[in-house]
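Q: What would this chain look like folded?
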Amino acid sequence: MTDESASQADGPHELLAAVRDLTRQVRVAQRGTWFPLLVLAVITLVAIPVYRYAPYLDVFGTCRYRPEHTVCIAPNPAELGYWTIALVLAYAAIAGFYIRRSRLRGVGTPIRPYIAVGVALAVLMAAVSIWLTFHPLLPVPTDPFSTDPVEIEVGPTAWLINGLASPTAVIALALLVLAWVEHNWALLAYSLAYLAIVMVLGGQIIHSTSPWYFLPHLLVPAALLLLGSAAFALFRPTTEAPVR
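A: My prediction, written as structure tokens:
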């Protein structure tokens, strides 16, 4: 009788342990972290020629003209348009990847929250950037053609809003949602570190006449995304769900 009681007591515990182990295996099988990071790294690298060679579209009337000299006090709308379209297309590709992966493995991934938040953040980024064009948080020089160095004090509010409105920060915020979707603590730590780095970059004011002044703001995030993609691809857990 004692043996039967022990067996009955152990049964639910063993079943619960088996369910937990199966849940862990399913969560591992759902993860495809390397692919979103790779896609986002690609669109960040493609942004480099857009920043360098895209003509300035003065749709907001923010440019000041003099003979053989033009100064624009707002970012190029072509860059904003690129990021909005590129991010939406990137999330469409990521959604397709996860859908195909779930069909092959027979294990679905609740990827909709990540895609929805990513697209919403891309649209919100465009709206905030347009608003900042007409309501700048940083002081606008009275003489935009002056070559004298101007010391600009950036307050915490201006630094935070301008930083979070940057495309690289928008990518990081969406990755936090992906970490929650995948129950991936490693991705959560990576996303927080990535967000901190791009926020620091976004808070820097660069005074340069070089047409490549923007490179650190794109190359550093792209390198981080590529390294993250490689790390998650190489060191992902080996536990996999059976393919149907």
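The chain is about 65% helix and 5% strand.
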